[in-house]
Specification:
- The protein has 331 residues and is an alpha/beta fold.
- It is 42% helix and 18% strand.
- It has two domains: 191 residues, Isopropylmalate Dehydrogenase (3-Layer(aba) Sandwich); 133 residues, Isopropylmalate Dehydrogenase (3-Layer(aba) Sandwich), CATH 3.40.718.
- Helix 10 packs parallel to helix 11.
- This is 4-hydroxythreonine-4-phosphate dehydrogenase.
- It comes from Thermoanaerobacter pseudethanolicus (strain ATCC 33223 / 39E).
- Homodimer.
């Protein structure tokens, strides 16, 4: 049976409702998954009319009621368009987006959904609602009780994990410690296995230009990154580095490496978004559930216009279904 993938609608004021609906009615998505949207039924019906979606929407109370031939959804925090303005930051929408995600996490933890795929939330709206999280990843870690986790971005052959993500650049440099780098390398191996890659070749990027050039441009490679790489090798992992950041992503995209460990947010994100912005997918590694996400934000500037590109959400649901398959094959 095709896995049931819960799609959390994201911030109602952004493009989340639109891309969730477009993905749910996609013949491609229906061929490999059973998509179930968690969000506001009123907002979803508004967008169904705007987009002239011919597939009927069906409100259900539990995943067990899912039926093919419909856009199945479970109404959570049923905001209406009278409660907020499309394209504007709203604490009500921040709270709603959190509740959609919370419902999806609970559903996955209970085994009612095989995986979740998340539409974007807005961090400012989240904070205005009194929810002091940096983003999806931190909420997922909190609600699943996960301590060791990381973000992996996927765009075609390019897979990237990060030593740090949502911190200031100065702070990110301070986080390049051998213990942290080693932990992310081991998580990268786990992540690759969850995608069906056996004995993955893991490339570790340097922090400094030219990976420090033997200490001329910084010594983090010598004292922090290289020892972590060596420790991972001693554990039997195929790890390479520290490698110059300006070439390692190109080599990985050409198939020389299976995963790249980036030292900070933009080092990895820029490479992935250049490789395939429309089809990029975010995966949270280390959780007890499978979670994928689009690799873009709420795009308030185009919200409500019916022109949002759903390909990243389609790829997120597809990757989630593939991960469910690999997980089941290992049992």
């Amino acid at each position: 049976m095709r896995p049931l993938v819960a799609i959390t609608m994201g911030d109602p004021a952004g493009v989340g409702p639109e891309i969730s609906l477009k993905a749910a009615v996609s013949a491609e998505v229906s061929s490999f998954a059973r998509p179930l949207i968690l969000g506001s039924g009123l907002v979803l019906r508004y967008y169904a009319n705007l987009l002239k979606i011919s597939v009927p929407l069906r409100s259900i109370d539990s995943p067990a009621e899912y039926q093919d031939g419909f856009v199945n959804y479970i109404s959570v925090n049923n905001l209406s368009l009278a409660d907020f303005e499309i394209g504007k930051v709203s604490p009500l929408c921040g709270r709603a987006a959190y509740e959609y995600l919370e419902a999806g996490i609970r559903m996955a933890l209970r085994g009612e959904a095989s995986a979740i795929a998340t539409a974007p939330l807005n961090k400012e709206a989240l904070h205005r609602a009194g929810l002091e999280f940096a983003g999806h990843t931190e909420i997922l870690a909190k609600l699943t009780g996960t301590k060791d986790y990381a973000m992996m971005l996927v765009a075609g052959n390019l897979r990237v994990m990060h030593v740090s993500t949502h911190v200031a650049l100065r702070g990110a440099c301070d986080m390049v410690k051998k213990e942290r780098v080693y932990k992310i390398v081991t998580l990268a191996a786990t992540a690759a296995a969850s995608l069906g890659v056996r004995d993955p070749r893991i490339a570790v990027a340097g922090l400094n230009p030219h990976a420090g050039e033997g200490g001329l441009f910084g010594d983090e490679e010598i004292y922090e990154i290289a020892p972590a790489v060596e420790k991972a090798r001693e554990q039997g992992l195929s790890v390479y580095g520290p490698l110059p950041p300006d070439t390692v992503f190109l080599k990985a995209s050409r198939g020389e490496y299976d995963v790249v460990v980036a030292m900070y947010h933009d080092q990895g994100h820029i490479a992935v978004k250049m490789a395939g912005f429309e089809r990029g997918v975010n995966v949270t590694v280390g959780l007890p559930i499978i979670r994928t996400s689009v690799d873009h934000g709420t795009a308030f500037d185009i919200a409500g216009r019916g022109i949002a590109d759903e390909r990243s959400m389609v790829e997120a649901v597809k990757l989630a279904a593939e991960m469910v398959k690999y997980k089941n094959e290992k049992k």
